[in-house]
Structure formats: C-alpha cells, structure tokens
UniProtKB/TrEMBL annotation, chains A, B:
The keyword Protein transport does not apply. It comes from Sporosarcina highlanderae. Keywords: Cytoplasm, DNA replication, DNA-binding, DNA-directed DNA polymerase, Nucleotidyltransferase, Transferase. Pfam families: DNA_pol3_beta, DNA_pol3_beta_2, DNA_pol3_beta_3. The gene is dnaN. This is Beta sliding clamp.
Amino acid sequence: MKFTIKNSFFTEIVSELYKISSTKSLLPILSGIKIEATKDSVVLTGGNSEVFIEKKIPRQINGEAVIEIYETGSVVVLSKHFINLLKKLPDDIEISSDGIQLVLIKSGDIVTKMNGIAAVDYPKLPEVKILQTVTLNFTSLKEVIKQVVFAVSKSEAKPVLTGVKMEFVKNKLICTATDSHRLSRKETQITFNERDHSVIVPSKSLLELLQLKESGSATIQISIANNLIVFSTENTILYSVLIEGNYPNTQSLIPTDFVTKITMNTQSLIAGIDRACVFSEEWKHNNVHFTLIENTVLKITTKSAGIGMIEEQQRISKVDGVPVIDMTFDGRLFLDALKGIQEEQVTISFCGVMKPAVIRPETETSYVQLISPLRT
Amino acid sequence: MKFTIKNSFFTEIVSELYKISSTKSLLPILSGIKIEATKDSVVLTGGNSEVFIEKKIPRQINGEAVIEIYETGSVVVLSKHFINLLKKLPDDIEISSDGIQLVLIKSGDIVTKMNGIAAVDYPKLPEVKILQTVTLNFTSLKEVIKQVVFAVSKSEAKPVLTGVKMEFVKNKLICTATDSHRLSRKETQITFNERDHSVIVPSKSLLELLQLKESGSATIQISIANNLIVFSTENTILYSVLIEGNYPNTQSLIPTDFVTKITMNTQSLIAGIDRACVFSEEWKHNNVHFTLIENTVLKITTKSAGIGMIEEQQRISKVDGVPVIDMTFDGRLFLDALKGIQEEQVTISFCGVMKPAVIRPETETSYVQLISPLRT
C-alpha cells in the first residue's frame, strides 16, 4: 500500500473515526483505524462494538486531486498516536505499508514508522441482507433525530428505552424516544410504499450519525437488514446494530383532552426556566413551579433553602380551558423539550394533576412531547 | 446597599473573581465574593488563602456611566450561584442588600433573592507596611513572568521552588524559577534605586496576575511589604503572600563554557520536538534524542517499542566548538523552554556529558534557561 494525500483533509477524516473508535475494548484492534487503498479510492474504517463507519476518499473531489495511489493494500493503525502525529505534520504526506505491521508516514525530512496491525485481523462487517430501503434528505433526518434522541433513557435498566424507535409505515417515518418520565415523538413524510417496518436504533449510533459532516442538500439512504441498520451517503456508510426487544406502546400515553392550554414565546420560556434552574440545584429533580396569574401571566418560581429564590413573570399569548395552573416540573426536562421546538410560539397543555403535560409547536402537529409533573 | 449596573460588564468582573475564589476552604465565606458600594465606586473582592484580588468599578469608565449608586453598604455572596445567575440575566440589573444576609437581584420582571453573608465576617486584609515600590509596564511584566513561571517545581517537597524568586537590585528586576531539572532566569531594566530586596512569590499568584485584563499601556505598581507583595493597576489590586525560606543560589549553576554551540530556527525546532514527543509517551521523561550530522543538520529521534519511531532532520544556521552532539533530553521540558524564546533563532550550548544545556535567544543576553540531560 502506498499513497500520497493532503494531510489537512486526511486528518479531518481520521479525527472523525478516532472519536468513535473503542478506547476500552477487549480487542485492541478496535482502537485502530483500518486504511485500505484500492485502485480508485482510499477507504478508512473505524468503530466500536455497536457502530462502524466507513469513509471513502475518492481520487478527486470537485475536480481537484486529493489522493495519488501508487500501490493498493491495507493496514490497521492505532488511532490515538496516529491522529496525534498527523496533527503535527505538514500538509503533504505519503503513507505506505508492507501490509503486515509497519506504517511508514513521510513528510519532507520527517520519517516516521508506526506499529500497525495486519488488516486481515480487523473485524469483518457482517453480510448484510437488505430488507427495506428509504432515501431522504440528510439535513431533515438530522433535525428529526435531534428532536427525539435526547429523550431516551440514560439507564440501561430497560435496554429498549436507550434507543429510538423508528417506524417506517406508509409514506411516514415515526421516531419515538422515552425514558418513562418524558416522551418525544416526531412524524416525517417520506416516500415509502413497502411493508411496514419498525426497529429500535441505539441512541449512541444516532448521535454518531449527527456528527457526520455532509452538505445540506446531501441525501441519505437508510437500509434495514435483519439485525442491522445502514445509513449511507455518497462517501460514508454508518453500520449500527439494532436493539432487540419489544418497545412499549406509547401512542396510548398521549392525552387527547386538556384542562388548561397556554401558548407563549418559546425562547423567553427557555430563558426563564434556565434561570430558575440555577436555584433548583439542591433538588433531585430541578423543581420549577408554574402558576397562572390573572389569565395573562405565567409565574415561574424556584425556592431553595440553601441558595435563595427566583420568581419571574412571563406574558402568555393565549389561554384555553380552565385558567388555573399550579404544578411543578423538572426544569431540566422541560428545557430539553423546549429546545426541540423550532417555532416562535409553543403550546403547553396541562391535563390535570399528576397527568403529563403535552408540549407542541403552536401550529405543527407532527411533533409532540410529554413530561410528567413532579409530586411536591 | 443598592446600585444598578450593566450586567455584561459586571459578569466579566465577577467571573474573574469567581475563578480565584476558594472552592474547598474550611471557611465557606472564602468561596464568596465581597461586594462593597461606596460613595463613588463598587469594590468587589475575592480570593483564597494565598491571593486576594480587589476590583474597583468606578461610576464612569471612558466618560460612560457604568454604575448608579443609590445606597452604600456591603455584603458577601456565594460566587458559584451568583455567577451562574448573572450569566442568565438581561443587561440592566439592580443589586441591593439589607447588609446582613439577603442579596436582591432584580432585572425587569425577574426578582431573585440570594442568601448572602454579612460582610463583617469576610477576612480582613492584613495591614500592609510598604517597604519598597516599583512601577513598570504591565505588559512587559507579564512577558517576564511568562518566560520564567513555567519552570517552578510542581512538587511541594521544597516549597521555595514552587515560587518565582524576584530580586530587585539597582535598576534591575531579576526573576528566577527552577525545579532542579531546569531553570529559567530573566533580567529586566527597571527604575529602582533603593535598597536591594528579594522575595519568593507563589507561582499561583503570578498565574492569577497573568489573567488580569488591562490595556497594553497600563502601568503596574509592585509594592513589597513585610510578608506580602502587592500588585496594583488603576482599578485592580492583587495581594499575594510570600514564600518564606532560602532560595538556592542559582547563579553559580549557569555554565560559562560550552563544548558545542548551535544556532537554529526556534519555531521549526519546537514543531520537530513536538512531533517527536508523540512517540515518547511511554517514556517517563519524554526522551528525545539529538544528534549532529555533518556540521549542518540536527537529527531529532524518538523510538518507542510500543508506538514506533520518528526521525527528522533540521538545518542548523551555525555551529561553534566541537561538532559532535549525542544527547537525550526531556522533550516536554525542552518545548517549555523554547516557547519562552521570542527571537527567530535560538542558541543552544551543550556543555558536556551530564551537564545542563543552556538555551538562549540568539542575540538577547538577559534571558537564559538550563535543562539537564537524561541518562540513557
């Protein structure tokens, strides 16, 4: 194997793969990056036990030569030292290998030899038997993932809840995440006419997907295989395992009735709850209290014996139903939910004592979130 | 106490003081910031057991009104929650206090009450009896401190070595730091005609001094008292304790003879040693080896059984003395030393096996550094 490449460009890709490579794996080779030079591209692979990313560097990008390949072949390098070195080398570098154990990296008068591992020892990706394939805009998919993924469970007690449920039904992708205290659900229009399919994707894999850099107009193809989900863009393929198990039926949890419904400015409410959280540090759940005053003002209050208290009033645009609110929520969960709302105005429906509140953008109906109140 | 202030400006100053306030002190009040409103300024004080900083906010800065004082008084607030809150408040804020325990912070419809502590309980600064005073340019002083402070000992085994020795002798300030493996010494011309004076200032206090923001032309006054050193600029006073004890005589350590002396580009050498250090991670001392080749080239080599090896060649501008170098140094210490060199070319004098190397800027004679070689 032997090729030359612009280091600035190469370092960026190796960094991306370094971030997902295992640092604490029983298989030391998993902390490495596989470099494979073929006739017309260099392919880099990195991953951990749940997700693998394959990055293809073509000979040319936008008509400009990026790599020059002199000899095909492959090798695995330990990513940590490799990236540390690359960051400190000038722009023109030559990478070569005898294919077994040594990687030679040259740049002008700088000669380095890094210990490598033979590429044959790198784990093989499983044979993938594609069941369904959907193509959509990558930026839109990223938005959808951001709007739900934060709500997954951080505890491994119920593994299915650590993933996002992705349902492909007729012309619709429905993503749902819940940790049983809160829920986030988003429907997106897609072109899909095949048999319904539903999978649970680990949140870690989706967070890696969010990190991938692609232009705004790029499309992404989602393929569902027997035990894998594969996301592919022009030069990148992300393989992720699926979580097995039964996801709870969440549709029935969403209240259809409300007692009090208010609409108000999203950003002001975020700022207000964020301030209130400064005073809720000593509570286990960041208790923030909401009270409705005279139909027009929401009072946000937090009290802490140790720190002090904050109280602020925010104007409400609209109130429907019974004009009484007197409830406590976890301020941090409320903030997470509000950050998913892209509209200027947010609608919050309070559905009665100890029932979850429903948070939605004022006009969009495809996005809904639930938060359970706190007992005080 | 009651005053109004632009929050953006106030937050910046409170942040500076928050950083030095004790977080783990037996006296909880030391994790607080004292706020004192006088007739014509607000003075904020924060500190820890070694250093105190007093910041004066005058009514006007550059002709623009900054604060409006309605009532004098003082109080202490716990800095962590205070700064967290300030960062989240709009720009116009009003701070008031009953002087005993509560601090009221208002901004529009936001009302907060933070628990405070009566200012009488805040530690008093000792009565300072000034022995000597020197005035110099603040930016120059910062440069001098940066050039020596990194060489102090990180171990508390010999407390005097954790400080920088500052000697005020006739029209000269000499700063020295050493951890017994390396030494850095810088002389600066000052206007000083009084009795010689020498103090050891804790490196932590000098690092705080480097953080102070002042304009490039600002002057700083250094006052030495019986057991304190006081640095004062127009609106800031930093009080630091001194380290008691006898500083070793370091002047005699600086070799006057050399075996081989080379001059070369400072930045290239920094980049080369930095690269070599990637491969020296598994060594206790970042072993980097220097060899002279044919009088014109310095070869920098590092070998590691686990990672690999790097070898690079750098052109030397000038060689004096015996044209043989074959020595190993701690690459990290060498990098620290070179980073203090502001000239394009650096001169390194090798003084024989197991004797320290002397590193100097090519032309400036007031700055000298020593590094002991490693046994290999």
